[in-house]
Amino acid sequence: MTKQFNALTDSQWAAISPFLDLKRKRQHDLRQIMNALLYVLRAGCQWRNLPSAWPHWQAVYYYFNCWKTDGTLERINRELNCQDRQRVGREPFPSVLCIDSQSVKLTPMIGEYRGKDVNKRVNGRKRQFVVDTQGRLWAADVHAANQADGVAAIPLIKTILWGAGERLEKVFGDQAYNGMFAKALADWSIDFEKASRPESTRGFVPIAKRWVVERTIAWTNFFRRLTKDYEYTISSSVSWLYLANIQLMLQRIEAYHQI
Length: 259
What we know:
- The protein is α/β, with parallel strands linked by helices.
- Helices cover 40% and strands 15% of the residues.
- Helix 4 runs parallel beside helix 9.
- It comes from Spirosoma soli.
């Protein structure tokens, strides 16, 4: 896990460039645009404060908005996950996924999709993470923090089915999802299994099949753009989560080529 921004290497660019339209002539190099997005993700700077070494911030934001709208970032994320699983000897798509949420503060200037998570005392938004047993992010969603985890995760099921493919058999989660969400999964012939620590235990206890979600959530701390929600739209918030996972998968690609 690198803690600073590094420009895309040739092998990393080769992994994601097939998903971008490189045939037509453009004013800006798409490789530089993607590098600029990854820089914003790492540094957490405002769009208007993007250093002059990068393309103009409006051009970078234009492509970010296009790629999040047409699903390019989701497709890149899905393909890199598949490639990384195959590199470690697994099937491209997972049969088991794990789900959990993270409540994060929302910048004071934004009132859209805001709520208060009274349990965690966070006034902001809640992120839903769906990962495989090695922590790769396959689906994500963002909503107001005052919404219940299980109910708010139901619209995420279609994204889970598209992202994980037909091999999916089971989803692990805590008690918050053992209700309407579990019933909605059953309609698609997918089992839900509650994974929680015994009630008699105290303090932190790693729970099999669920601790990987907590680790993925912890990885967001390496990306300054994700330490708080700065986005006016929840679609942008979700796209930054996919970009963070893309960055992690690209790091593994580079490490693999260096062996």
